[in-house]
Amino acid sequence: MTASTTSPTDQTTSGSRGTTPPVPEGAVAVTVKIRRFNPEVDPEPYWQSFEVPALPTDRVLNLLHYVKWYLDGTLTFRRSCAHGICGSDAMKINGVNRLACKVLMKDLFAGDGKQTTVTIEPIKGLPVHKDLLVDMEPFFEAFRAVKPYLIAYGNEPTRERLQSQADRARFDDTTKCILCACCTTSCPVYWTEGSYFGPAAIVNAHRFIFDSRDEGAEERLDILNDVDGVWRCRTTFNCTDACPRGIQVTKAIQEVKRALLFRRT
Amino acid sequence: MQFHKYDVVIVGAGGAGMRAAIEAGQRARTAVLTKLYPTRSHTGAAQGGMCAALANVEEDNWEWHTFDTIKGGDYLVDQDAAEIMAKEAIDAVLDLEKMGLPFNRTPEGKIDQRRFGGHTRNHGEAAVRRACYAADRTGHMILQTLYQNCVKHGIEFFNEFYVLDICLTETDEGPVCTGAIAYELATGELHVFQAKAVVFATGGFGKVFKTTSNAHTLTGDGMGVVFRKGLPLEDMEFYQFHPTGLAGLGILLTEGARGEGAILRNASGERFMERYAPTIKDLAPRDIVARSMALEVLEGRGAGPNKDYVLLDCTHLGAEVLETKLPDITEFARTYLAVDPVKEPVPVYPTAHYAMGGIPTNVHAEVLRDNENVVPGLYAAGECACVSVHGANRLGTNSLLDINVFGRRAGIAAAEFAANHDFVDLPEAPAKLVEDQLALLLSEHGQERVADIRTELQATMDANASVYRTEETLKQALHDVQALKERYAHITVQDKGKRFNTDLLEAVELGFLLELAEILVVGALARKESRGGHAREDYPNRDDTNFMRHTMAYKQGEGLTADIRLDYKPVTFTRYQPMERKY
Fold first, then answer.
1. Which of B186, B328, B495 has the CB atom closest to A129's CB atom?
2. Alpha-helix runs per DSSP H in B253-317
3. Where along the chain is FAD bound (chain B) (predicted)?
C-alpha cells in the first residue's frame, strides 16, 4: 500500500493549474485530505492533501471544486444540484456519509485556532471507479429489484384515486428518498454482504407497501423475505444517521419486518 | 467506436425525457441517453406544484388557465400551444396520480391544490387554487414517479452518456435527423446511435449566470448541439429570474410559500408588492415580482447590512404549515443561511431560473429548421424546447406541466414517426466533428483555465444581462463574452485520461455556455422593448408594433466565434388580443 501525502506544490506534472484566485476575506486555510484512486494509472489508492481557503459558509463541495478547478483537474467526483436534492455527491466526510453540498465548513472548523483537516473518501461498499466516484449500478439494481412502482389491478378510475390525508401521511417519510446511497453504504451488513438489498431499496419498497393505493405489497414482501432481504438488518441505525433527508430509515425497515411477521399492511 | 441502432433515441432523463420514454418505450425500440443518472436531473429540484384546472377545491376551468398563461407570458405565447397545454394539464396530473405520484390530499381525499403566481379565477379577478402539489417537493416526486415507471416498463438507459452531436442527413427535401453521437463518460469512448427519431429533452442553461437556482450540470448542451448544426434557437433573450432565491446563494425557495400566504417585505417591513400589483400582490407573475424586488433594492429600500436583498416573511404561517407543506425550503433556509423561517424572515433576491426560449418546435414537438419547416425525425420537449407556451415569462408550475404534456407528445410523435418510416443512412463519418472537437480540447494549446473563463462569464452575465438591462450593459456583456470566446481557444484540459474525465466534460460544457450567453445577449440587444422576463431600462414599455414576434437566432458560419444572425417569427393568436398587463 503506497499511502502518500503530498501538498500541491510538491507535484510537478499535474500540479497547480496556475495562479489561484484571491482568497476571500474571512477565509481560513484548511487541509483537505482526499482518498485518490485512478485505476488507469494508480496501482493502489492513496491519500493526497490540499491546502484550500474556506469560508464558514462554504460547503464541502465548494472545497472540492476549488481543488478541481485550481489545483488538480484530475480530481473526480459527481455533483449536480449543489443543495441536497439530486443525491449525486454522497461521500464519506470525516468518517461519516454525507452529501458534500449539505455539509457547511462552519460545522467542521477545529476549535482553538487549530488547523482544520477535512477527510474525504468515497462511500464504502461500492466499487470505486475513480477517486470519489463509485459504481452506482449495484445500488440501483437492488432498488429495481423491489418493484419500486405502484402496482394496481383492475380498471383505472377516470379521475384520481381517492386517498385520505391519514393514508397519504402513512408513507410520507419514505417518499423523500433521493437515492443518494448514503444509507446503504453506511450499513455494516452491506459492506460485508453486497448481495443484501440494503436500506435504500427497503425504504423504496416501504414507500409502496404502505401506500393505500398499491396492491403489490405481497409481491414485495416475498422479495424482502428472501435471504438477502430485511432479515439481514441488525438495527445499527447507521442508515438513519446517514440519511441527508432525515428519513427514519431503520424505523421503515422495522415496519417492513413487522408487516412480514403479521403479513398485513 | 461503438455503433447502436434504435427506433427512438431520447436525449436527457429529466421529466420531459422520461415522460417521452414512457410513451415511446411502449411503442418502439427506445434508448435513453443521459449525462446524469436519471434521478439526478434538475426536475427534482422543482418544488411548488403543477397547475391544472381540476377544480378540486374551487371553481376553475382550463380556459382561465390558458388566459393566465398567455397574459403571464406578456402575449408572446403561441396561443394554440397554450390552449393545448392547459387543456391536457388535467389528464397530465391524473396520469401522474395513476402512475403513483403521492399528491397532497383534500379532506375528501382528492388531489389538493394551492395558489401560485399569476394563476387567477375568471381572467384576473383573484388568485385561484390551481397548483397540484406534493409538499414542496413536487418536482422530486414527479422525477421519482417517472423513473419508477421507466423501471416498470423496462426502459433502456445509457447512463452518463453525454450527447455531443446529432446526425443530420441531407435529402432532397432538406435535412433529416438520423441519429446522435454520445461520449461515454466511464470509458471516453464514442458511440454512434442511429435512430429513426431523436427526442431532445436536455434542460436549460442557467449556468451562464453566477446566481442561479440551476444545477452545475445545466449548461445548455442540447440547445448548443442543435444551434451548431445551423438550426435556430427561439426567444433566447427571455430568461426568467425567480424572485425568491436565497440571498447570495440563489437556491430556490418556492413561490408556493407565497401561495400559502408568505409576504415579501422591504427593509422597513413594508409589503411592497401592494404598490406594484394591487390585486394579487405577492402572487403576481415572476417577472413583475423580480423587477419590483430589484427596484426596491435599487431605490435604497433593501434589507440587510448592504441593503441588497428583501425579506420573505413566513413567520405568520406557523410551524405546522411550514413543516408539513414547505418542509424542504424551511430546511434550506436553516442549513444554508442559518435562518429559521418559523421565527424570522428569510433574505431573498432574484435568481436565474428558467429559459423561456430554446429549440423551436410545433405543438407536436417537431423541431423547426426555419419559420415553417420541420426537421423530420427530430423532436424536442421541456426547458430546452420553445413551443412557445411560456412566451416572455413563464408562470410558476407551468414548467412541470410543460414537461409532462409536451414530453408525452414528443414520445408519442417520435414513436409514430419511427413506425411509419425506414432508417435513413447516416451521413459520412458521423462522429468526425466530435472526434475533432475532443482531440482539440485535449491537446495542449494554451494556459487558459476553464474555471476562470466560466467565472468571468457568470460575473458579466449577472452584472449586465440579468433582471434589468440597457444598451450599455448588454454591449459590455457582448464584448466580454466575445473576448472570453477568444480565450476559450487557449484552454488546457489537465486530465488527459479516458476514464470519467469530468475535466474534459467541463471544458465542453463551457463551450456551450459561451455560445448560449452570446445568443441571449445578441437577442436582448436587438429587442428594444421591455416584455416579460426581458426588462430594458432604456426601453421601459412593451412595443407590440415592432416586437410582437419571436426572435429566431441562427449560427452564421463555423467555429465558436461565428456570427449570429437574427430573424423573426410571428406569434400565433387564437382568441386573446394583447392588453396592458396589470395585476
1. B186
2. 256-259, 273-276, 286-298
3. 12-17, 34-49, 221, 383, 399-400
B2-11 and B190-200: which strand pairing? parallel
- The 3 state secondary structure assigned to B517-551 is HHHHHHHHHHCCCCECCEEECCECCCCHHHHCEEE
pLDDT at A18 over 90: no
CA–CA separation, A66 and A73 (whole Å): 10
Query: CA A93 → CA A45, A139, A160, B48, B206, distances in Å?
Result: 17, 20, 44, 32, 29
Whether residue B32 contacts residue B155, with contact meaning beta carbons closer than 8 Å, is answered with: yes
Percent of chain B with pLDDT over 70: 100
CA-to-CA separations, A77 to A217, B414, B498, in angstroms, rounded: 37, 35, 15
Residue B299: the pLDDT is 97
Q: Distances from the Cα of B168 to the Cαs of B283, B378, B516, in angstroms?
A: 45, 9, 21
Question: Hey, of A59, A74, A167, A173, which one would you mutate to test binding to chain B, going by the most B CBs within 10 A of its CB?
Answer: A74
| A–B CB contacts, 8 A cutoff, strictly below | 150
pLDDT the model gives residue A5:
43
Please say whether the beta carbons of B474 and B480 come within 8 A: no
CA atoms within 13 A on the CB side of A30: 29
- How confident is the model over B107-135, as pLDDT tens digits? 999 999 999 999 999 999 999 999 999 99
Query: Which element (helix H / strand E) includes B321?
Result: helix B318-325
Contact B215, A88 (CB under 8 A): no
Catalogue the E-assigned strands of A55-173: 90-93, 96-99, 117-121, 128-130, 133-134
Residue B95: closest CA among chain A residues belongs to which residue?
A160
> How far, in Å, are A181, B40, B118, B149 from residue A81 at the CA level?
16, 8, 27, 23
Instruction: Please tell me whether B17 is known to bind a ligand.
Output: yes
Residue A59 DSSP class? B
Q: CB-side exposure of B295: number of CA atoms within 13 Å?
A: 13
> Which residues contact residue A64 at a Cβ distance below 8 angstroms, ignoring those fewer than 6 apart?
A32, A34, A75, A77, A79, A100, A120, A132
Q: What is the mean pLDDT of chain B?
A: 97
Backbone torsions φ then ψ of B83, nearest 5 degrees: -60, -45
| Best CA proximity match to A83, nearest among A68, A110, A69, A104 | A104
Whether the CB-CB separation of B85 and B406 falls below 8 Å is answered with: yes
